Amino acid sequence: MTTASQPGGPLGPFGKGGLPGVETELYQVGFDASWEIDVFGGTRRAIQAANAEISSHSRTGAQCSYRCWESGHVYVQLRSSQKRWEIARANLETQHKTLAIVEAKFKAGFATDLDVEQQSAQVALTAATIPALESSERTAMHTLAFLIGQQPGALAPELAAHAPCPMCRSMCRSESPRTCFAGD
């Protein structure tokens, strides 16, 4: 057994690399960094200008802008939750009526037990979405109250009545959502 250093590593009992039929090669990777002296102060002046630009913007203005944006966002979420709740309630009513029809058909022998069970499951599924929508609505009301400095629930009397989002109505020139979102 030779321990002399060969170009692929020390020579072992299996040859170069230690395994029969396997040759290994060694690669070396390095990292190089450099820096440049700012003789004329260009980099320093660029940093100072960037800091001055950031300082020129008022913090209160940025905070107000964010708070206004967030309030508008939460308000739209609130009205969206309310509309989805209305749709879910209407769907639930329709599905109850459909269930009654399917049950009547089953009693008359024109529907199977599977049809009744499927419609019952659909009613239960729709009914299960309503509490989540109500929770989303309450959360949005409380968040909106917090954002404008009120106690949670303080805006509930004003916001409980379901109404369309006024911003959406003013942006949309027609009653049809297709023409509204098509870039009208």
Q: With helices defined by DSSP (H or I, 4 residues minimum), what is the helix count?
A: 6
Overall shape: flat
Instruction: Please give the order of strands in the largest beta sheet.
Output: 1-2-3
Number of strands: 3
* Rounded Rg: 35 Å
Task: Outline the low-pLDDT stretches.
Answer: 1-6, 169-184
Task: Jot down its keywords.
184 residues; Methane Monooxygenase Hydroxylase, Chain G, domain 1; 6 helices; flat; disordered C terminus
Give an overview of the whole structure.
This protein has about 180 residues and is mainly alpha-helical. α2 packs antiparallel against α3. The longest helix is centred in the middle third of the chain and has 50 residues. The chain has a 3-stranded antiparallel beta sheet, with no helix packed on it. The chain starts with a strand and ends with a helix. It has a domain of about 90 residues: Methane Monooxygenase Hydroxylase, Chain G, domain 1 (Up-down Bundle).
What is the topology?
Layout: E1 5-6, E2 9-12, E3 15-16, H1 42-56, H2 59-108, H3 113-147, H4 156-159, H5 166-171, H6 177-181
Antiparallel strand pairs: 1-2, 2-3
Helix pairs in contact: 2-3
Task: Provide a concise account of the structure shown.
With 184 residues, the protein is mainly alpha-helical. 62% of the residues lie in helices and 4% in strands. The chain has a domain at 60-151: Methane Monooxygenase Hydroxylase, Chain G, domain 1, CATH 1.20.58.
